[in-house]
Amino acid sequence: MKTLPVESSGTAINIGSRLRGVRQRQRMTIDQVAELSGLTKGFLSRVERDLTSPSVSTLLKLCEVLGIEVGNLFEVPETMLVRLEDAPRVSLGGEGITEQLVTPRSEKRVQMIRAEVAPKGVGEAELYSVDCELEVLHVIAGKFTLVLPEQRVELQAGDTMTFPGREPHSWENESDDVALVTWTLIL
Hints:
Blueprint: H1 15-25, H2 30-37, H3 41-48, H4 56-66, E1 89-90, E2 95-101, E3 110-122, E4 134-141, E5 143-147, E6 152-156, E7 160-164, E8 170-172, E9 179-186
Antiparallel strand pairs: 1-2, 2-3, 3-9, 4-7, 4-9, 5-6, 5-8
């Protein structure tokens, strides 16, 4: 039986940085991993910086200490790109607003909506809430007013407001300039 030659993809897998990420997520120090694995801190540091490659047996030992499967180190994380010109328009209500969903439609953990709000644009007259855990409003350009039950918060470019997603609210752009904002909804 003839084996098929496999060509390298030419892309390096940074195992060391992935090991470091796992270690840090588990709140382990390099000292702790060194002690549990029997390896030196210096060697582990070089591995984590992808300056040296561990042997298979060393890699297995490190994965055992970190409690992960070796295969996890070789998984390619899923990434998705949404270009602004391809982002679908959405409408959450209000007048003088153009909204686009700039995260993938299939994303179930978070949604980001980019909104251009015309001068004197206004949200719903009656306060509304969104079915999400947390909302993050960031003003990229212009001025923007967030209307909450007990207060009106005047925001300007660079300001970010975080509040519970189920908090009733609305908004206004009382200025004579376009406001550019993002709404990030943590689902």
